[in-house]
Design a protein that fits this description.
There is one protein chain. Strands 1-2 form a two-stranded antiparallel ribbon. A hairpin with a 6-residue loop joins strand 1 and strand 2. The protein has five helices and two strands; from the N terminus they run αααααββ. The protein has 158 residues and is mainly alpha-helical. Helix content is 65%, strand content 6%.
Length: 158
């Protein structure tokens, strides 16, 4: 993942509500799947293993965020466990087929959460974050981000 993408994800996470956070995790998994395929194409096994670990981290975070008060959480858990099994197979066999199985599951979940995201009117999960304004300025075709935060207290509010 490039530095610019990391910054973009960080900004989106800091301003996201609960549903958007799940969508962002799915997008990260899809991006990492592309990186894993690229590592397989270039036969870079170390990078491949590293990317698989990152995908597993995202899936573990998704599993940890499930609310088992709802029946849907059990179904999602089964899907996440399936994805984890496919990741283990992909990691040991260096096979793109397992990555495709994972992509199919995550693509469908991502599309479903994108629809739910539109209906979720809750506020951001993170509070007390910096406000970032971005736009084209005097520089030619450059994007400049300005951080405007009158209060320098960005820690926990008690």
């Amino acid at each position: 993942m490039t530095k610019e993408l990391k910054q973009e994800f960080t900004l989106r996470i800091s301003q996201a509500n609960k549903t958007q956070l799940i969508t962002i995790l799915y997008e990260m998994v899809l991006l990492y799947l592309d990186e894993a395929k690229e590592a397989l194409d270039t036969e870079n096994r170390m990078e491949y293993k590293s990317v698989i670990r990152k995908i597993r981290g995202c899936i573990n975070e998704l599993m940890g965020s499930l609310n088992f008060e709802y029946e849907l959480a059990q179904n999602l858990l089964q899907l996440y466990l399936y994805v984890n099994r496919e990741l283990v197979k992909a990691s040991s066999h260096y096979d793109k087929e397992n990555l495709e199985h994972i992509r199919k599951v995550i693509d469908k979940l991502h599309a479903a959460y994108k629809e739910i995201e539109v209906q979720d009117a809750s506020g951001p999960v993170m509070g007390n974050t910096q406000t970032v304004y971005a736009g084209l300025t005097y520089g030619r075709n450059t994007l400049t981000e300005n951080i405007s935060d009158p209060s320098s207290n960005r820690g926990f509010c008690v």
